[in-house]
């Protein structure tokens, strides 16, 4: 039986399960994410991060969510860089799924759900995302959610010891 995927706003109580996933998956995520200080992988570090995310949420700059499968936290989905002005109603989607829950459709479902949040709750017009050029699984998730690539940002992120290019993605939400 396939587990159901849902998302909700992040909560302070999510710090410990997020830290547990991040400690276990540090090597799996190394090619895709910047280096983090040791404190990032602790419940205390995640609690501080969640506090900052929720402050950003209250300010209207971010919508920080968690991904759940059968009520177990398995990842995060976040809309950052929210620009709610009438002429710039857009946000940037980011997500990760714990390795124990990958390849089960959760990332695609989480992105589909956060696109609804962007449209219905946040009133945004445009969704953006970026992926490492080699991150084919993440690119498949975006393609399945009607994102299209529109360019390459050269040397845009420092990952695993070197500057990497990123593939830029977009989706107009009202289409």
Q: What report would you give on this structure?
A:
With 175 residues, the protein is an alpha+beta fold. It has a single domain, classed as Gcn5-related N-acetyltransferase (GNAT) (Aminopeptidase). It has five helices and seven strands. The chain has helices spanning 15-24, 26-29, 43-58, 106-121, 136-144, and strands spanning 5-9, 63-69, 72-83, 90-97, 126-132, 148-159, 162-172. The protein has a seven-stranded mixed β-sheet with strand order 1-2-3-4-5-7-6, with helices on both faces. A hairpin with a 2-residue loop joins β2 and β3. α1 (15-24) packs across α3. The protein starts with a strand and ends with a strand.
Features:
single chain; 175 residues; alpha+beta; 5 helices; Aminopeptidase; globular; seven-stranded mixed β-sheet
Give the name of the CATH architecture.
3-Layer(aba) Sandwich
Mean pLDDT, all residues? 93
How many distinct helices? Answer: 5
Shape: globular
Cα Rg = 16 Å
Briefly say what this structure is.
Helices cover about 30% and strands about 35% of the residues. The chain is built from five helices and seven strands. Strands 1-2-3-4-5-7-6 form a seven-stranded mixed beta sheet, with helices on both faces.
């Amino acid at each position: 039986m396939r587990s159901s995927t849902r998302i909700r706003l992040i909560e302070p109580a999510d710090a410990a399960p997020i830290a547990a996933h991040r400690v276990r998956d540090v090597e799996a995520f190394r090619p895709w994410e910047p280096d983090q200080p040791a404190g990032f992988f602790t419940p205390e570090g995640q609690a501080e991060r969640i506090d900052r995310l929720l402050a950003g949420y209250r300010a209207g700059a971010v919508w920080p969510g968690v991904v759940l499968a059968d009520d177990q936290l398995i990842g995060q989905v976040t809309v950052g860089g929210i620009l709610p002005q009438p002429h710039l109603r857009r946000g940037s989607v980011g997500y990760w799924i714990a390795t124990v829950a990958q390849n089960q459709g959760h990332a695609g479902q989480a992105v589909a759900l956060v696109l609804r949040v962007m449209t219905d709750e946040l009133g945004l017009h445009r969704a953006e995302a970026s992926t490492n050029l080699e991150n084919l699984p993440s690119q498949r998730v975006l393609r399945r959610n009607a994102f299209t690539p529109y360019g390459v940002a050269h040397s845009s992120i420092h990952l695993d010891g070197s500057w990497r290019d990123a593939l830029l993605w977009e989706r107009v939400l009202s289409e």
